[in-house]
Write a structure and sequence with these properties.
The chain has 310 residues and is an alpha/beta fold. It is built from 12 helices and 12 strands.
């Protein structure tokens, strides 16, 4: 069977070589499409693919229609909103992600950005420390757990709320030292810094709204390493206009980026492009995990990381 890497933003060469070794040692044919510039290149490449490994590439119904042999799509990373899950299910295609492989890289970036902003972009003026600031984790998956581990080293009290886990489930996560709260409202009320870690779902789109933001103390920081769509940008703009010490840090450039920069040059910070998983280690980890999951699925139907219904 043919396993194809489809990456507009390629894996590191080391990762590609190791992925190829895993695929070919399992008896499959390996192929790749990198740095493509047109969707027609993508639809042409997948015509004979039984499996594809992707990163942030958009795999919609048109792409799947062009791939009649396609059985499995593995997203090398945690988020999977770039894949049309409904279309995949209708075509009996398994979609999987690789949870946890990028978690440490994203968590380290969270604190890199926090330190940069708290120290006034290292401009030589007096900044602020992270110690004793209450950190609120909105969602508690793999990245949030790594953030909690690091936060303990900074001496930060840690609160957590998960729309998925129950209050009792969170209380059992004792090794992370988090204080579980019952609602998003309670989380925002008790946090000086909120770190966002929820996936983009219908119920999470624009869930960070004025109702939540206005409950935070003053000053406050929201840091987003999840998806830009979970933020209601109109409401974020409003709270920052009302509170001259409110800061917004994001690894995903806002749709209203130019307005944020113009109005809040010292209180809004974004990376030039999403950088959370952009480390050599995460690149290799996610790619190899994806390759192993493809091989396992093609061999025995192992779909333990499936994200779409059968």
């Amino acid at each position: 069977m043919k396993v194809l890497i489809v990456t507009e933003k390629p894996f590191a060469p080391q990762a590609v070589q190791e992925i190829e070794n895993i695929i070919e040692n399992a008896g499959h044919t390996f192929g790749k499409l990198e740095k493509y510039t047109d969707k027609s290149q993508l639809t042409d490449a997948v015509k004979d693919a039984d499996a594809i490994i992707i990163r942030s590439d958009i795999i919609d119904k048109e792409v799947m229609d062009a791939a009649p042999k396609l059985k499995v799509i593995v997203r090398a990373g945690a988020g999977y909103d770039n894949v049309d899950l409904d279309a995949a299910t209708q075509k009996d295609i398994c979609v999987m992600n690789t949870p946890g492989q990028n978690a440490n890289a994203v968590a380290e970036l969270v604190f890199g950005m926090l330190l940069y902003v708290q120290r006034n972009h290292f401009d030589g003026t007096t900044g602020n420390e992270l110690k004793n600031n209450r950190l609120g984790l909105y969602a508690f998956g793999n990245v949030a757990k790594m953030v909690a581990r690091i936060a303990r080293g900074f001496g930060m009290p840690i609160y957590a709320y998960s729309p998925i886990l129950t209050h009792d489930d969170l209380r059992k996560e004792g090794e992370y030292g988090v204080i579980s709260v019952y609602s998003a409202e309670e989380l925002f009320e008790n946090s000086d810094i909120i770190s966002l870690h929820m996936p983009l779902l219908e119920e999470t789109e624009k869930c960070v709204n004025y109702n939540l933001l206005s409950r935070m103390p003053n000053p406050a920081i929201v840091i987003n390493s999840a998806r830009k769509e979970v933020i209601n940008e109109d409401d974020m703009m409003r709270i920052m206009e009302e509170r001259p010490k409110f800061k917004y840090i994001t690894d995903i450039k806002a749709d209203r980026h130019d307005e944020f920069v113009a109005k809040f040059p010292d209180r809004y910070f974004t990376t030039p492009k999403k950088a959370g998983a952009q480390t050599s280690e995460a690149n290799v980890n996610a790619g190899l995990a994806a390759a192993r999951q493809v091989v396992a699925f093609l061999k025995s139907g192992d779909d333990r990381f499936r994200v779409n219904p059968k």
